[in-house]
Amino acid sequence: MGNRVTHDVYGLGRVTGVEEGVAVIVDFGSLQKRIMSPYTKLTNL
């Protein structure tokens, strides 16, 4: 929670929620997305 991340499609964001082993919820500013595991397009900064 709280980690800054970057996504190949949505850009920079901050993790606002974690569903252990299932998904993370990321706030990209203008939208929030639920990114499903595996997180291939998501990179921790």
Topology of helices and strands:
Elements: E1 4-7, E2 11-19, E3 23-27, E4 32-36, E5 42-44
Antiparallel strand pairs: 1-2, 1-5, 2-3, 3-4
Molecular structure report:
This protein has one domain. The protein has 45 residues and is mainly beta. Strands 4-3-2-1-5 form a five-stranded antiparallel sheet, with no helix packed on it. It has strands at residues 4-7, 11-19, 23-27, 32-36, 42-44. The mean pLDDT is 96. The radius of gyration is 9 Å and the shape is globular.
Summary tags:
5-stranded antiparallel sheet, 45 residues, globular, 5 strands, mainly beta, single chain
Taken as a percent bin, the fraction of beta residues is over 45%
Class inferred from helices and paired strands = mainly beta
**What is the domain tally?**
1
Give the helices and strands as they follow along the chain.
Answer: EEEEE
Number of helices: 0
Query: In angstroms, what separates the terminal alpha carbons?
Result: 13 Å
Shape: globular
Major β-sheet, in short? 5 strands, antiparallel
Helical coverage, percent range: under 10%
Strands, total number: 5
The whole-number mean of residue pLDDT values reads 96
Low-confidence stretches: none
Using only CA atoms, what is the Rg? 9 Å
Q: Within the largest sheet, what's the order of strands?
A: 4-3-2-1-5
